Amino acid sequence: MDSDMVAQVIDVANRVVASGAISANGHGNVSLRVPGEDEMYFTGGPSLRNHLPEAVVRVGLDGALREGQLPPIQAAVVAMHTAMYADQPDVGCVLHTHSPYATAYAVAHRPIGCWIEALAMFGLPEGVPVAAYGPRGSDHAVANIRAAVVPGVPAVLLANHGVLVFHRTPDLAITVGGIVEEAAQAGIRSTPIGGAVEIPAGMKEAALQRAMAFEQKGVAAR
Length: 222
Hints:
Structural class: alpha+beta
Low-confidence stretches: none
Shape: globular
CATH topology: L-fuculose-1-phosphate Aldolase
Oligomer: single chain
Number of domains: 1
CATH class: Alpha Beta
Mean pLDDT: 92
Number of helices: 8
Order of helices and strands: HEEEEHHEHHEHEEHH
Strand order of the largest sheet: 4-3-2-1-5-8-7-6
Helix content: 40-55%
Largest sheet: 8 strands, mixed
């Protein structure tokens, strides 16, 4: 086991917890693609909270366990991680959580619209789609996720389950996970006062261009 990869996975797990975009019990999982290899390192523990280094496992992108011990309940979700790596070669990190507000949309089978500027700025100008339900870890579930993923959009809601985020780097994945949860929270809290309103199409592109300009200047976009 590569101790540096294990440390990186634990760091990402801790940062996801610190971000607040996670359920109270910390259920979820994190994986990192090993650069130049056909494998990933994956959180095999039951919670991302206080995840132990010895519970991190090494898994081939074919889903085969290569090193460590992986409980069946965690092994069941490996396939949705490996599917994102197989389908998108630039993806380096996959996060799965049950972040409360986003999961509320997932269990309602409702997409999250682009009603906060950050979604447009970080690659989700059409919001976050919903993948139809399939039993945990089944071929049906993975096929539904693949069918729902929109090219270039780094997140999808999992009906009756939670949220899946996938991006080039852990930093971007964690940021997007937080933005998705923020948008869901805003959507739900705005309901009593008339509901969330989508950003006009032309303004979504303007928000993205603004973010790109800041990035080029080395200035944080948010």
